[in-house]
Amino acid sequence: MQDIVTAPGVEMETDAKTRVFISYSRKDMAFADRLEVALKARGFEVLIDREEIYAFEDWWKRLQALIARADTVVFALSPDAVASREALREVEYAASLNKRFAPIICRRVEDTAVPEALRRLNFIFFDDPAQFETSVDKLATALQTDIAWIRRHTEFGDSARRWVEAGRPGGMLLHPPVLDQAEAWLTFRPGGAPAPTAETEAFLVQSRKAMLGTQRLRRLVAASMFALLVGIILGLVGWINQTTISDEWRLLTVILPYARANVRPYVLSTTKELSLKPGHSFKECAQDCPEMLVVPEGSFTMGAPPTESQEVLYSLEIPQHEVTFARPFAVSKYEATFADWDACVAGGGCSGYRPNDQNWGRGRQPLINVNWDDAQQYVAWLSLVTGKTYRLLSEAEYEYATRAGTTTAYPWGNDIKLNGQPMANCNGCGSKWDLAQTAPVGSLPPNNFGLYEMVGNLFEWVEDCRHENYAGAPADGTPWLAETRGYCDNRVIRSAANGNPAGAVRSAFRSASPNGARVSFLGFRVARTLETR
Question: Distance from the CA of 265 to the CA of which of 305, 421, 521, 533 falls in 20 to 30 A?
Fold first, then answer.
């Protein structure tokens, strides 16, 4: 699994240095010198008006160029800095470009003296010389937050500015695939990140208009030149490309507007995401998307113990082995519902497929009649509209989340009921839905993590390919794919259906199904990779 996640269209530049402009008063030059050295030692490219401006250059134009190149502007606050006309001019220009600011306290100042553009931001304090290195570490972490998106802010903002200064010529506009990446970048702005400038937005709008105009012109020219001679060939080419054109149009006219209206305002900011603790829940949409629950990092013993050796499929559930999760992750509190899927279709995803609900109802009924590829389409769409990494669970994640710290046959104990109360939906579980149909999500008691229907009700797809047993299984909780005799035309399914016997509701139970199976007893739930410090 990846450690670094970026929004769609925002590519991570792993070898590029983050550019930082330091704005300061000349009376704080000794502090600026020390800060410059510390940031360079941590891999940053520092832009500072002392060394980077050469003789005979126009001082202000050169400063403007440096600020424009910077990903973040660090303003060293002090009584002299807030009284400096030059320093305040730098802040004003950076604000006009919607640059990200990182204000730091070099020497204490009155709150009312802080420039308006900085007053609402969190400060990092450098007023204790003994804590200088610790403060630099905090600053470095802040400077790297959402840096992939911020770099694109710098890049597209610079392109837009040069386009305006040159008189808005068509030759400087963006073209696919960079244009597609820019539009996705514009949509998936992280919480707290600076907004693009008006000229950047105008630049992207004009780029799209020009691209569509060029496409129309090309199609007209091609049609007039070759219609009579190569009509059959053109028909074939049109058929081949229609999917790409349709997908691009759907992205622009359906998916991105849906994301802006229904999803992006609710996506967790980096700060909120980093503050999540095990047991916390969140939902990244207005309605009809999975409610996610944070599952803690930890270790567990995966597989069936010898006490369950009498079970029919015991040979698939051994050998027991230790699995360790080094970081927390989020799991949907409920199985994916028809409401979740119908939102995907309304939002331009999931190929417009409308699964049969077997006349059991839609809404909060668990989604059924979806195959593994359908599940992949759903998590891809959810990742696109949120800018976060949603995915299927690995098999190890599923059993870890199911057991929720227990080692018994079932998540609640060793008996199929708990104190006479039905705990699942299966053949013999005692619920009112046994053998009849799926229960609406959340109908039965949750496990110790607060997750519902992790066993029974219906089978659920996971990421892993089918393996005959656990010999050679990963110990880190990642999906087990084709490297060791995996059969990836079949995928593992966990839980059990409402028609399966009690032995299938055990935490260790596992089975598999062909990837293309759309059946009334099979659905899925989702996981989300979380950012960590």
Answer: 533
